[in-house]
Each structure stands twice: as C-alpha cells, then as structure tokens.
Structure to design on (57 residues):
C-alpha cells in the first residue's frame, strides 16, 4: 500500500506541477505550479490509496 501511495504522490505532483507551469509560462515555482502540484499530490495520494486497497482487499 505504501508503494502505491508513494507512486501516486510522485506522479500526481509531477503532473500537477507540469500543468501549473504551463499556466505560468514555464515557471514551475510559480503560484500555479505550486498550487497544481499540491492538488495533484493530494489526488495522487488518494488514487494510490484506492489502488492499494483494491490489491489488498
């Protein structure tokens, strides 16, 4: 389960930061990059948790 959550965190925050940087003209440390990276991380944690639950139960 921890592996799935970690993968979800990495993928979600990476994709969210990348999408946010598109709005900030390539600045990954801009407001949109940080905001979307954070939202993507939470979404990735949730998705990793759900995937981990399906493998366990």
């Amino acid at each position: 389960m921890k592996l799935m959550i970690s993968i979800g965190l990495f993928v979600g925050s990476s994709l969210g930061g990348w999408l946010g940087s598109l709005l900030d003209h390539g600045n990954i440390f801009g407001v949109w990059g940080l905001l979307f990276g954070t939202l993507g991380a939470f979404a990735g944690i949730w998705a990793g948790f759900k995937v981990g639950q399906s493998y366990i139960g």
